């Protein structure tokens, strides 16, 4: 490799190091983890005790000595303060509890979901009941439902058929949802949006409670579901000779 190429590589490395140092100086951090114990490199810290009490500004050596005395970790919780704020805590326990809280928050997080159900203006009663059942299930889960009436051929000249069908569906599920967006024509389709009365978080909580209740009932009565299935099963009729 020629001298010019080596020099170019060294210049790029030097520029990258300078950029990293400048970023850290502006308050950035290479690691997302806070500095703990011997990784803290300052002469003194503002110390917070295990119960949240303010100890005051103490030398780093004294703070590390107290951490060892309490059998805890010295954790830097505010690196940009002058002097940095450190707290005495069980860092392993703190990380575990933080992870559990984040996991619970993700579990309870509600995402707005819009389901879609398509119908024809001249839908037969059986298909209507099936489609309505799906809409009921979506609303119970706390989801919005977009109802689309699809017109074909000469049906486009009779939009009132779709309008009446949408009104009928809205009345049939009014205990679970409300008309969030009134019926409107969109090309060959007519669209209406139903919103649930129950929030997504409430529906999720109720579903979890019902699941836990079923598990508890199954655990308390392990043979109940099997006996019920055997009782409800119809007896086989004898074959005709």
Automatic annotation (TrEMBL):
UniProt domain Translation initiation factor 3 C-terminal: residue ranges: 113-196
Translation initiation factor 3 N-terminal domain segment(s): 36-105
Name this protein carries in UniProt: Translation initiation factor IF-3
Lineage, highest ranks first: Bacteria, Bacillati, Actinomycetota, Actinomycetes, Kitasatosporales
Any Pfam family the entry gives: IF3_C
GO MF annotation, one: translation initiation factor activity
Residue ranges, annotated region (Disordered): 198-241
Organism: Streptomyces levis
Domain of life: Bacteria
Family per record: Belongs to the IF-3 family.
Subcellular location: Cytoplasm
PANTHER family membership: TRANSLATION INITIATION FACTOR IF-3, TRANSLATION INITIATION FACTOR IF-3, MITOCHONDRIAL
Residue ranges the record marks as coiled coil: none
Keywords noted in UniProt: Cytoplasm, Initiation factor, Protein biosynthesis
Basic and acidic residues compositional bias, start-end: 201-218
Function, in words: IF-3 binds to the 30S ribosomal subunit and shifts the equilibrium between 70S ribosomes and their 50S and 30S subunits in favor of the free subunits, thus enhancing the availability of 30S subunits on which protein synthesis initiation begins.
